[in-house]
Structures are given as structure tokens and as C-alpha cells.
Amino acid sequence: MKQSSPISQQIIDQVTEWAIMHGVAFRQPDSSAKHCPFSFAPMTMPREVFEHLIKVTPLLTQLISRVSEDHDFLQSALADVAQADPFFARLISLHRQAHGHALQRLTPARKPLLIMRTDFMDDRQHGAKVIEFNGIAAGMAPFGQRATELHAFIRAQWPSDHANWQADQQAKPAPNQGLAQLASAIATTAKTIAAQVKVSDADVQHQPTFLMVIQEGEANVYDQHLLEVALQKLGVRTVRRTFKQLSTELTTGANKRLMLANVGAIDVVYLRAGYQYVDYYSPMQQESVCCQTLSQTRLFIEQHHVAVNATFSQQLATSKIMQMILTTMPVQDFARWGFNFEQAQLIKSVLTEMKPINAETINWFNTHAAQHDWVLKNQGEGGGHCIFGQQISEKLQQLTPQEYSAWALMQRLYPHEREALTVAIRDSKQSIISGLVSEIGIFTAFFDDSPLTEMNGYTGYLIRSKPAQENEGGIYSGKGILDSLALTASDN
């Protein structure tokens, strides 16, 4: 294993100052900023693996796009989960209000804007496989681009120090324009919607407007602001609101325009909230049904001429249970959504094996399975929803049959561990880590089932790395660090 000298504190200080100055930071409770933890040099990946992901991910996005608009399939396939998970039941109920049922379909006015991050790990045995789809609050594309720029800054300013910690001296940085491409995709969509719904001379003066729905008091605001600044440079006005604020500020304008008080017509709504019950909870509301008022605000949005990410349909289509359904589905069934046999095989090649929870699966797991090779997942988004190893049997024993449908087993992935030592910088201090593993998120953007970039919807990537022994790799709440990617000619 390669040994290298520690980095001087002077360099560490300059690099962390660059990070904060360029928005690679989290807001603290006292409104100060703290830099994100990051690596000093990028991870490496064989070029052919990365190019394969760039090829297959837009197909996955197109699949999710079409599944999300197949409302009969969504409602029939996910009916059991609604009985097992209260939040999922709320989403299904809202979806039925928006789209009706099989005998009487409704057509909401909203247009689907699918901004998706598909997370992969490159397994040692099975190759690159999907961990999960992120169709709501699919953020951090700005951080992905900034991490690439951060490593370019280090390489230019301190080439010898960077070289000491670069695993492969021949590896070439993988270009990453995640922030710029995502902003361009959203701006294009906003301008398209604005042009489609002009109803008066006043609309000629309308500036395309982007609404970001946010959580109260969240820490990951700089990633969001980076996207807003990029949109503003492209001529798009940006505003931020919580669901609580929107519940009293939205109205309907002419031609079903979505109107925001003191702002005017909205063209794009981008949800960075809405993936958990607490996003809809307001203690001020006297409700017989929890979270009904604020979730109805989201329904109100979808009933207007506006591009929305994520729609109810998209959130359901990117759920863990839908991932399992698609994983276990025969290749031939993908023809339902317009995919030929070769395309379906390519999609299936990156889907990780999953199993539904039922009495038969539980018996198999307890008696025959290599238990450490599986992960138990519920329908929760974000970190903290996975159970590993012996704790799986304990959890399965606690579940009632009515709860089975909210859970699924997924084959555990064991990605390649980084052979070279890595410097991680956290709180302006360095630590040397061995056996780092990485997760790569591929961003794509589609509008109304059409790709929004020249690379078939691909917009950029996000690398998060963590020690192999850690289960939670989140940048903010886990042991993860922000990283970038350098490509090698072959798998050394």
C-alpha cells in the first residue's frame, strides 16, 4: 500500500477556504458555514465502467419516466404497500386524487420534469449495480461539479502533493458539469412552460420562474443556492418556499397558471422536500388526518400548468418497492414501456437482486441465506433505513404480515476498496484512511419523456466515499466524504 507524507496545515487551510468560498459547505445552527468533508485527490475507475454507466443510466431514467406515467400499473403494483406503510398510503391516496382510478382517469395539468440521481456501486464480483433511484430531492449535482473543480484546484496549486495521493498517475479527471447541465435543463424547461401558457400581453413580460420547495432550517442550503445562482445567470427567477408557506400563498391564475403571492406565475417546481412525513407536518394545523393540509398543497401544484419534479408518480416509480418489482420482472415485460429485448437486457444488467418479504422469503433467509450478503430496506428515503447482518432476522421476526410489503431484501454490494491510502479532510483536519469505497450517483434530466441534454439526458455525477466498514456514507450525517472521479485506461 502506497505511503505518503501528511499534507501541511497551510495547504489544508487554503483548500478548506476555497471550499467554503465556492459553496462546498453546510449551514450550521448559528448560521455560520462549515466545509463539507472531502478527499484530497479523486478516486479512480476504469473508463469502460464509467462509460457503461453513462450509456445505461439514461435508459433507466426513460424507464422510470414511462413507469411514472403508467398510472394503472402504479396503482395495481403498489396497492399492497399502501396497506403496510402510512406515508406510502398517503402518496397513493394523493396519486389517486390527481389521476383518478382505472375506470375514470384524470389528467392533471402538470408536466413531468424528471431530475433523477441513480446511485451505483461497482461490486467486486457483479460489476456496477444500482443501489437506489432518487427521484425526489435528488440533489447535490452542484457539489458533484464543485468536487471536480476542487481537485483541479489542488492539482494546479500543489501538483506534487496531489500526485503523492493520486492512486494512478495516468488517470484522467472525468469531466463533470453537473451544476451547469442541470441548470441548463431546468432553464430550458422553465422557458418552454412559459412559452406554452402565455395567455395575455402581460405574459410577454413574464420572466421564467423557478420555485424550490424546501425544508425549514435545513443545513444543505449551499448546494441549493449554487443551483439557484446558475439559473439566475440563465435568466430564470428563483424563489424558495416551504410547504407551510405555500399552503397560504398559492392561487390559480388564467389558463391554470400556478400563481405565487407577490411573485406571479411559476413555471417549474422542484421539490427538495416531500419525501418524509415530517415535511408535511404543521403543529398549527388542527387535522383529523396527519399532514393532510400540506400534502394537499402539493396536490394543488400538480393541478396547474407547471413543470414538476418530483410528481407523485415519479416518487412512487422511484420507490424501493418499485425497484424490486422491476428487478424481478421478466425481460419481455419491459416491452410494455416501449423497450426492445436488448434495451431491457441492458437495464436488467445493472439492477441489483431483490426479494419481497413474505413467509417463504423469511424462512429462506433464516435457514439458507448467507445473511451478511443481504440488506433489509424499507420505503424511507435518505440514510438510516437499512438493516444489516444478524439484525435482519431480528427485524423480520418483529414484522407482522401486514407490514411485509413495506420491506424488501437487496443483495449487499461489496465495492472495490481503494488500494492506495486516502486523505480525508473534515473540520479543517486531515486523516489518512485505508480501504475507502465509493458510491457514484449519475444525474439525468428528462422533460415529458424527452432528454434535456445532448448526452441523452446525462447531466453529471456525484462521488461519495466512505470507509468500507461504515454502513452509512452520507456526507452530512454519515462518515462519507465528497469525492471526484479520475478514469483509468483499464482495471489495474
UniProtKB/TrEMBL annotation:
<comment type="pathway">
    <text>Sulfur metabolism; glutathione biosynthesis; glutathione from L-cysteine and L-glutamate: step 2/2.</text>
</comment>
<dbReference type="InterPro" id="IPR037013">
    <property type="entry name" value="GSH-S_sub-bd_sf"/>
</dbReference>
<dbReference type="InterPro" id="IPR005615">
    <property type="entry name" value="Glutathione_synthase"/>
</dbReference>
<keyword id="KW-0460">Magnesium</keyword>
<dbReference type="Pfam" id="PF03199">
    <property type="entry name" value="GSH_synthase"/>
</dbReference>
<feature type="domain" description="Glutathione synthase substrate-binding">
    <location>
        <begin position="209"/>
        <end position="317"/>
    </location>
</feature>
<protein>
    <recommendedName>
        <fullName>glutathione synthase</fullName>
        <ecNumber>6.3.2.3</ecNumber>
    </recommendedName>
</protein>
<dbReference type="InterPro" id="IPR016185">
    <property type="entry name" value="PreATP-grasp_dom_sf"/>
</dbReference>
<dbReference type="InterPro" id="IPR014709">
    <property type="entry name" value="Glutathione_synthase_C_euk"/>
</dbReference>
<dbReference type="Pfam" id="PF03917">
    <property type="entry name" value="GSH_synth_ATP"/>
</dbReference>
<keyword id="KW-0436">Ligase</keyword>
<comment type="similarity">
    <text>Belongs to the eukaryotic GSH synthase family.</text>
</comment>
<dbReference type="InterPro" id="IPR014049">
    <property type="entry name" value="Glutathione_synthase_N_euk"/>
</dbReference>
<dbReference type="InterPro" id="IPR004887">
    <property type="entry name" value="GSH_synth_subst-bd"/>
</dbReference>
<keyword id="KW-0317">Glutathione biosynthesis</keyword>
<dbReference type="InterPro" id="IPR014042">
    <property type="entry name" value="Glutathione_synthase_a-hlx"/>
</dbReference>
<keyword id="KW-0479">Metal-binding</keyword>
<keyword id="KW-0067">ATP-binding</keyword>
<keyword id="KW-0547">Nucleotide-binding</keyword>
